[in-house]
Every structure is written in C-alpha cells, then in structure tokens.
Amino acid sequence: MVERRWPICIDEHRGKPRVRIRKNGKLVFNQTLNVNINTKSGIAKAIKLRDEVKHRLKFGIALNQEEITQVHLFHIAAQEYLDDLGGSYSSHLDYESSINSWWMPAFGNHLAEEITTKEIKKVLDARQVAGRKVSRKRKKNALIPLRGIFNHLGIKPNPADFHLKKSDKDQKTPVDRYLPEERSRLLSALKDEHLVYFAILLGCGLRPAGEVLALQWKDYNGKQLHVSKTITRRRIKYSTKTYVSRKVAVPTWVQELLNEHPTRFKNSYIFLNKFDSFYCDADNFNKAWKRAHTVTDTAYRIPYTCRHTRAAELLSIGIAPAEAAKQLGHSLQMFLATYSEFIDEYCSEQDPLRFEGIAPQIQKVSQKCPKNKIASIESKKDH
Predict the structure, then answer these.
(1) Scanning 222, 273, 317, 326, which has the fewest C-beta atoms within 10 Å of its C-beta?
(2) Where are the beta strands (DSSP E) in 104-211?
(3) Tens digit of each residue's pLDDT (9 = 90 or more) over 36-69
C-alpha cells in the first residue's frame, strides 16, 4: 500500500491534521487541529493555518503566545544538553555513549515533548547485548543522561523519572574471592612489573587499573601509598573516583617487592612503558594475569577480585569497618553493603572467643510465692 502524502508542513497525528513549521532548523510552531484529516475541509483548514503562520514568520509578525508551542527534536535537545554538561571528561563520554547507543536509534527524530514513559520502558525491555538482556544497573546508568535531557528542556513530569523493578537476576551473587593459597600460587607465577602490579592490588586493595598505573614514586614513603589520581579513558585524572585522596598502608611483603622494583631510580611513575611514560591501560598486565591462572590451574577471576580479597582480609584480621573503608576509598555504607561477610579460610585460625563480649551479671529470682501472699489468697477463698 502506497503511503499517503500530505501537503508540506502538514502530517497526520491521531487522525487529525498537525501543522509543524521549522525555522533555522528548530521547530517554532506545532499545532494539531481538531478536525478529520481525511476530509477536504480538514485539509483546507490545515493549509490555511500553515499559510497564515508562514506569512507572519516571513514578515516578522509575532505569533500569538497561545499559538506558540515550544517543542524540540530529540537529537537537537540531546546535543544542547551535552554542550551545557559540566563534570568530568569521563562522565561526559559515558553520557554521550549512552545517548548514542540507547536513545538516538529510538528517539533521534522524535519530538522530545512527545516521548512517553511507556516508550522508554519498551526500549529498556528490548535492549540486549550479545543476545542477553542487560543488567538493571546498566539500565539505570542509561536513564541518567536521558533524564537530564528532559530536565534540561524543563519537561514536567519527566518521563524518564521512574524506578526500575528488581528481578531475581538482579540480585548480587557472592564474590568468589581468592583464597590465601590461590593468592600465593598466582603471585608465584608472575614476575617483574606484573608481580609488583598485582602485589599492590592484592596487598593494598587499590582500584585496577587506574589507581595503580597512576602511582608515582613520590607517592610512596616506604610504608604508605598516597592515592590522589587515576588514569581514566587513557588520560591522567588528578583526583580519585570519589574525589577524595587517601593514604593506604603497604604490607611488609609488598614493600619488599617495591624496594626491588628497578623504576624507583627514575623518580617517575612506578610502572613505565617502553616510552618511559605511564601505561594508558592495563592490557599488558591483564594478559599476564590470565596466563598465571592457566599455568596454576586456578579458576579465572577479573583483577577487580583482588580488591574484594583485600577487603575480606582486612575484616578478617579485625580491622574496624570504618578504617577498612577508608583504606579502600569507600564510604562506610558502601563498604558494609559490599564486604559484610568473611572468607572462612581467612578466619580459620582466629579465636572464636573474640565474639564472647562481657557477660552481664544476672540475679536469680525465686519462683516460689511468699507465704503471706498464699495466706491472703486462702482467706479470700474462705469468704
């Protein structure tokens, strides 16, 4: 069936003629007439309105306020939002990526004012990566810039302002942290800078790869590492993920490896590439990490598991949660939510009596009734 063509600047909207006129690439007039588009009189009224509006625009005659409807094409509104967006460079790239991959294919040429919550949820439900539905967390992240676009336009209520329902698949699975013997095997299979890199991850719990690769020798005083920057999107960012610098204790066994690391004489970054500059990414180290798992026949886990392992170790040796959270650069609330459980192998040699606490002094109360009370009861019975 051949699609019916309407006059210029006129289209169909729910069976009625809609007049939409653009000027300098922006939609300046948008009005739907309450007549049937399939009648000659309906089309005639739409044409008359269109010509009148164009005449006013041509000669600079202002439109009546009630005739002006502020509307925005989504792709133009999205670009304006990104142009005005502050924040970090990495956040800007993340938002741009989410808009381009999630929302532009669905809403690019739509009017932002006409996008509904139902349509947004439909996009979220249909989204798949490699044939599998994406996680609730990724959907929440994709909604952030979309919500920002509608807020930028002042659209109320915001159609993207809703909560995603949780499902069984969204529940967090326990992290398969490294056991002490696994940690020893893996480190024994590494050498040179790879050994030092993963020793810092396992011994200090820094975030891979950015926090470790951004370390300089001036950040190390022999006992602590001063973590104040990270590498993000292959660039040095002079702040941490949480924008709070911290000093992290370095265990003695890690100190020994650092003191033997040859780059200490160059007074630059602890990890130097072949150009004597910092590594932009951890690809080189991650390949060595995978090989170490294969050689030692150990179940592979991503490098971030080293951070989880250090958190469990800190808890198991009796470090207070608030102090452990500070070492890892977490808020206390986030730390407790993520690292609440211990690993049995770390705690096996600890004295179970540490949970005893101080026993209260409890006075025993006789269960027998006083004689005078018994007598009073008997006297009542006699009456």
Answers:
(1) 222
(2) 128-129, 132-133
(3) 988 989 999 999 888 888 888 887 776 665 555 5
